[in-house]
Design a protein that fits this description.
about 220 residues, mainly alpha, about 85% helix, elongated, disordered N terminus
């Protein structure tokens, strides 16, 4: 009992001494203490401000992307592209920037500007931000290259997609792009194999029926 009491008293003395020393140091170094406290408060204020600005920028970027999409669906493609480019550069650190690049590629593709669309998709793929947009851009790139008549590059993009995103919902469409390009380049055996793979992978689907109709 005596030893336990001694240990408790020693602990109390150590804590008391530590508190006394801390108070004494603070009183003797009041300017330094205030300086440290001010630095901590300043750092916290900066963190809060940065977080607020980031969230505000995110919201603004999404709003502007919605406007850009609205312009396109109203038939104002040029105005949509202009808005999308501004989002990509002015809000580069936000997820909306990547999706604005993706949508710009789609706008260019639908406008028949396939080479420009391919370049836009490629820019997003290289940036890889946000990651969720990468497979969409790669699929778009393969389609744009095919539409531009560059089937060799389209096959490379399609094969890359199928290696990296074989379970993605766009995989059947990319298989179709690959098969068409193989057929276009005279690779009939490869095209036949791709059609047959589509039937196996996507049975009872539109793509299986489409592959069967092509594989004759």
């Amino acid at each position: 009992m005596g030893k336990q009491w001694v240990r408790q008293e020693i602990k109390r003395d150590i804590v008391a001494d530590s508190m006394t020393n801390a108070v004494s140091w603070a009183n003797a170094n009041q300017q330094k203490t205030l300086g440290v406290a001010g630095a901590v408060v300043g750092a916290l204020a900066l963190i809060v401000f940065v977080a607020y600005q980031y969230n505000k920028n995110r919201e603004t970027a999404w709003e502007r992307l919605a406007f850009a999409q609205s312009y396109f669906y109203q038939g104002q493609g040029d105005k949509s592209i202009e808005q999308l480019k501004e989002i990509e550069t002015q809000f580069a650190q936000t997820p909306a920037s990547g999706f604005s690049t993706l949508f710009a590629g789609d706008v260019l593709f639908r406008s028949g500007k396939y080479k420009e669309a391919a370049q836009t998709y490629q820019r997003l793929i290289e940036r890889n931000r946000p990651p969720a947009a990468a497979p969409l851009a790669l699929s778009g790139l393969a389609a744009a290259q095919e539409a531009a008549g560059d089937c060799k590059s389209s096959m490379d993009s399609a094969n890359q997609f199928l290696r990296e995103h074989q379970d993605h919902f766009l995989a059947p469409q990319v298989h179709a792009t690959l098969a068409r390009c193989q057929e276009s380049l005279g690779m009939k055996d490869l095209a036949k194999a791709t059609y047959e793979r589509m039937v196996v992978l996507y049975p009872e689907s539109y793509w299986a029926q489409w592959a069967k109709s092509r594989n004759k």
